[in-house]
Amino acid sequence: MANETEIDAEVRRGWMSLLAKAPESALMALWGEVSERPAFEWLRAPEVGGVMVRGRMGGTGAAFNLGEMTVTRCSLVLADGTVGHGYVQGRSKPKAEAAALIDALMQTGAAASVRAVVLDPLAGQMRAAKAARAAKAAATKVEFFTMVRGED
Is residue 58 included in any domain, yes or no? Predict the structure, then answer.
């Protein structure tokens, strides 16, 4: 069992972000391919709630409340004592449970297998979707050219 403090915080933040933002259908399809599901106990059963989303103008301005977003969260502990947390967008309790289990497994010896079966394919799917959106938006881009008239 790896202690939470032994896991690089930036690396963990990356997989937690990926799980939180992933479409439920994609995550659950990949999670279905994981054959061994560990036994666990709930520390906090999945529950739906709201969070305030804050923003900044230009990334550097004063923070302001943008609005509320629905999230589902849960926490669990594996038989070996590893704790996993799941925070996901929306109201999906199964997605939050899967995210918490994946978080816990990524802190154990099963991390390489979970990364290969779930996280890497999921990251690839999300990159492809982002590239497709960018290409669609680029197709509508309009270029404006100004002609100089010779007057100063």
Answer: yes
Q: Assess if residue 138 is contained within a domain.
A: no
Is residue 123 domain-resident?
no
For residue 131, being part of any structural domain is answered with: no
pLDDT in tens, the chain (152 residues): 455 446 788 899 999 999 999 999 999 999 999 888 899 999 999 999 999 999 998 878 899 999 999 999 999 999 999 999 999 999 999 999 999 999 999 999 999 999 999 999 999 999 988 888 888 888 887 777 776 676 65
30 class by beta-carbon count within 10 Å (0-12 exposed, 13-18 middle, 19+ buried):
buried
Give the structural domain span for 16: 4-115
- Total domains present in the chain: 1
